[in-house]
Amino acid sequence: MNRQTADLRAPAKPRLSSAAPTFLVDDVGKTARWYETNLGFTVSPFPKNEPYVYASLQRDGVELMLLRMEGYQKPAVSRPGRNWDAYIRMEGVHPFYEAVRQRLPIRQELVKRPYGDREFEICDPNGYVLVFSE
């Protein structure tokens, strides 16, 4: 058996390539527009017309998903330490922070953590906490 044949028969090694936090929301359209307007995400909703049941939000290789659950309100979570729903790693966190803070309330100001990352936090309109870090 030649090497080419052996490569075709060998099972591929599984490799994870990404993850997309998925948020339950009452109004997918309203939430998607907030992400588009305030954070520069591109919105791909389903179906084509509102009320949407799903939307993929994408920016620079980051994806968040919204799923409609009529009447849903995110429960308040209280636990020691941070209460994060999505931790987004990025480049250029300082200029992004400056732009975001002109439009939105900041939950946690830009700060350098003991582990070396610079982070800031915001809440979306449904109470999901997003951390932007470099």
Describe the protein.
The chain is α/β, with parallel strands linked by helices and 134 residues long. The protein has a single domain, classed as 2,3-Dihydroxybiphenyl 1,2-Dioxygenase, domain 1, CATH 3.10.180. It contains three helices and eight strands, in the order H-E-H-E-E-E-E-H-E-E-E. It has a four-stranded mixed sheet with strand order 1-4-3-2, covered by helices on one side. A hairpin with a 5-residue loop joins strand 7 and strand 8 (129-133). The radius of gyration is 19 Å and the shape is globular. The termini are far apart.
Tell me, briefly, the overall form: globular
Low-confidence stretches are: none
CATH architecture: Roll
Structural class: alpha/beta
For this entry, what is the oligomeric state of its chains? Answer: single chain
Question: What's the short version?
Answer:
21% of the residues lie in helices and 31% in strands.
Q: How do the helices and strands line up, and which of them pair or pack?
A:
Layout: H1 3-9, E1 22-25, H2 28-39, E2 42-46, E3 54-59, E4 62-68, E5 86-89, H3 93-101, E6 108-112, E7 118-123, E8 129-133
Parallel strand pairs: 1-4, 5-8
Antiparallel strand pairs: 2-3, 3-4, 6-7, 7-8
Which descriptors apply to this entry?
about 130 residues, alpha/beta, 2,3-Dihydroxybiphenyl 1,2-Dioxygenase, domain 1, 4-stranded mixed beta sheet, 3 helices, about 30% strand
